[in-house]
Amino acid sequence: MFNELIQQPIHSTLPIHSQSATFYAEQGTGDLLILVHGSLCDLRYWRWQISKLHAAAHVVTISLPGYWPNNPSSTAYEFDLQNQIAAIADVIQQKRQSGQKVYVLGHSRGAFVAAQYVLTYGNIDGLILADPAFPIDSPPPALPVLAQAASLMAEGQDESGLRLFINAVSGENTWQQMVGWFKTMVEDNAHTLIAQSRENLPAISTVQLEQLRELPLLLISGALSPTRYQQSVARLLTLLPHANHAIISNASHGMNLANPKAFNRAVLEFIHH
């Protein structure tokens, strides 16, 4: 069954590849655009981006270590911030071509991983952060709902745990309104919530953020995104006033799916500025 999952395409014509045990799908030519998913997602999360943006860029959507189609039994060892930063570095090193600009787009927890990649390697031409929830200058506050969801799942109550977490992060009744393919993706990554509940993410200091002042930066918010994400973006705009800011109308946390046309337009305007 696991081998069959690896062969499953992101859509009917786009196969999944691997680089140093990092799974990815790609399409298009031009400047390189790396897409980094958030909690409970994987490379399939960006289906409405890779299918449209490939006309203007070489789009690569990755699955961070620990996420589908990696073997769930190895998640405890693979689900690590440094492993995930290294995964982005490996794919960029393989895919980058001479004279090509490189952009990294991260969503939610993936925005934190993407920012940490830039702070570690700093060799890209632009950074896009969609609904980041950055811990700045102090460790991130504990999310009780994450521990509660992980506890339910450890007891075998996967659906209850997933429903609790998804509705808390993305808005009430989100779980009930999920389309089939998205719910399948979330269920495929349910095991990662337990690993995520045990991680201790480092804070990003205001001094570190100074490294981003010279880097073209786009912050993307959903107009209906939960307060914690809006507050995070507002703080980043204060600390990084050079950043561009796009607000996606009629969309909450999953703005790239709720309003993909507006989201894609904001990305294209940024990378083609």
Number of strands: 8
Return the structural class: alpha/beta
What is the helical fraction, as a range of percent? 40-55%
Number of helices in the DSSP assignment: 14
CA-atom Rg in angstroms: 17 Å
Q: How would you characterize the overall build of this protein?
A:
By secondary structure, the protein is of the alpha/beta class. It has 14 helices and eight strands. An eight-stranded mixed β-sheet has the order 1-2-4-3-5-6-7-8, with helices on both faces. α6 packs antiparallel against α7 and α6 crosses α10. The longest helix is centred in the first third of the chain and has 15 residues. The protein starts with a helix and ends with a helix. The N terminus is likely disordered.
Sequence-ordered SSE layout with sheet pairings:
Blueprint: H1 2-7, E1 17-19, E2 22-27, E3 32-36, H2 47-53, E4 58-63, H3 75-78, H4 81-95, E5 102-107, H5 109-121, E6 126-130, H6 144-154, H7 158-170, H8 174-177, H9 180-188, H10 192-198, H11 206-209, E7 217-222, H12 227-239, E8 244-248, H13 255-258, H14 260-271
Parallel strand pairs: 3-4, 3-5, 5-6, 6-7, 7-8
Antiparallel strand pairs: 1-2, 2-4
Short note summarizing the structure:
With 273 residues, this protein is of the alpha/beta class. It has helices at 2-7, 47-53, 75-78, 81-95, 109-121, 144-154, 158-170, 174-177, 180-188, 192-198, 206-209, 227-239, 255-258, 260-271, and strands at 17-19, 22-27, 32-36, 58-63, 102-107, 126-130, 217-222, 244-248.
